[in-house]
Design brief:
The protein is of the alpha+beta class. It has helices at about 5-15, 20-40, 40-45, 50-85, 85-95, 100-140, 150-180, 180-185, 200-220, 225-255, 260, 265-315, 330-340, 360-365, 385-395, 415-420, 480-490, 510-550, 555-565, 570-585, 590-605, 620-650; strands at about 320-325, 345-355, 380, 405-410, 425, 430-435, 455, 465-475, 500, 505-510.
Length: about 650
Amino acid sequence: MTLSKLSFRNARRQARDYMVYFVTISLAAALLYAYNGLVFSGEIRTLSKGMSSLSLTIVLASVVVVCVFGWLVAYAARFMLLRRSRELGTYILIGLENRQVAQMFFLENLMVGSCALALGLALGGLLYQAFRAIIFSLFGLPYHFALGLSLPAVMLTAVYFSLIYLYALSRNRKRIRKMKIYDLIYSDRRNEGPVIGNGKIRRWLFGASFVLGAVGIFLLMRRELIWGLMGAACIIIFLFGFFLSFASGVPAFFERRPARKYRGQNLLIFRSLTARLAAMGIMMAVISMIFAATIMVEGSGLVLNGLFRSRSAEKACFDLYFGIEGKEQDPRPYLDYIEDNISVEQWVLYRVYVSGIADVQNYISSHTAYYCYNYEQDPVMRWRDYAALRAVAGYPAAEQEPGRYLIHCTAYLEEPLRDYTRPLNLGGITLAPGSVYTEHFFQGTGVTNGRGYLLIVPDEAVEGLEVHHLAYAAQTSEPVSAERFEELTAAAGVDENRFLTDSESYTFFAAKAIENADVAYQTAISVFPLFFLALALTMTAATILTLQQLSESEPYRRQFELLRKLGMDRREMTGVLRKQAAVYYTMPAVPALLIGVPFILKLAAAPEPGVMVGVSDPGVIVSITLGIFFLIYGIYIVLAYTSLKRNVLPE
């Protein structure tokens, strides 16, 4: 049999025995191609001016992802070399040269990588269409399926894969050419040596690591940056200390508690687990850290997405808006341009006043987190303007309540303001608190409708009040285009952030279509790459865990065959195998949760109050993050357990 035929046979066997690895590499190729397709897509770049940044962020993310997948391939290639070293040594023993065996190993892995690349490109075409549909939906555009192959994306993906495989395999090729027959035949018996050789020190470290872990969790839950960093450091030390000392700590624990040692299948389960961790303690700690990074990256993406959408929803309640604060409040240049160039169905020009007191603001500040920004007094609007603005925004009409003032606020202030009972005295008119409304009403900056809340009073009650700013809101017959918006802001002389500031005035512009486009491109250039990276990290760590688990199929098979002869039935053996797999896959995930969840909660609490609410609430973000993580992780667990159950349990 020629080397090429032998390589082909071995490659086919390798893909079958390590199907999880082959599928992961195929998915890696699919992901790389799909994201490269976005980089080279002309239609994606034309969706928004900001989308030109998408190529850069995806390329940067791809470099990191290529390094992650490169580490996976290098680890898997070395792992397979160790597992097959006796077979490779036998080839040399029967007459082949090291050079020929190295070439054979190189070719068979190259075949696996080539097949994975070909399959990945086919899947990547479909995945690219899914990403394309998501981006189009972000911009509110219709999607039409158009399957095709991007040659630049294919070439770049092939370059990535070539770098990954050639680097990993060339190292193993050099290793094989230098190894002796003895090294090859017996290298599969070598495990990760203990970093700490003294058993007493390992047992002491086992207990100390739990203390550090508890301290780390406590510090992380304080949600302060300095304490959080110290807590993360304690957790990392706990990870390495725990996994490196587990093989000594668990026996010591059971020696002092013999009743638990022989309860159920504890002895069998933990004996197998300690043997495994003695061989891969450092790797288990590294995988746990990767899982923590995955959870933090996914959570960060969801926090950013919630931040973009919440802020945009507040700004995008009017099709077109501008506000002018200062001594010179002349809207005529802007109104003239709008009349000549933008089709308006209904509009309102109005003023926002300040009451001269800050009773409501002080009440809110004492009952919840609140930032007043440049509103030092309670903002006020007359009823006529409020009713017109509700019509412009498309909201149902509100009912005026004689002798009362209404409150319009953001959702997070509704609960405290419903309990507010203090009357308002303006111009000799005393008004009692009335209904509270919470629709989006552009209540963010200093030249909008209040900062988080607005008091609605009868028209005559505003007489004599100081004007805070002049504002204009309109409903247009069609979305304001980017070109029209740029012309309007250019005519006003505003900067790229839509502000005009000088010694006399301060102006801000906004348009619903522009805000929606902004949140779409912000999501695309930040959230997409973060989820790309998180998926790569999850797949890599889960694949390494699964490779290690599946590599023990033969020892497990012998173990369960012996247990069958000793009288254990299949149901009991299934339970033992299930518990072993559950503990094995749970151990690296739990510390990751202890690090990742407090980080997400802290990050989600960073924006200003009232932004991270609803589906962007920190608790909801944590739930979604963990749901995504455990969905992917669970697939690998099920595949590994199913394969083990089929291969190791005797019939």
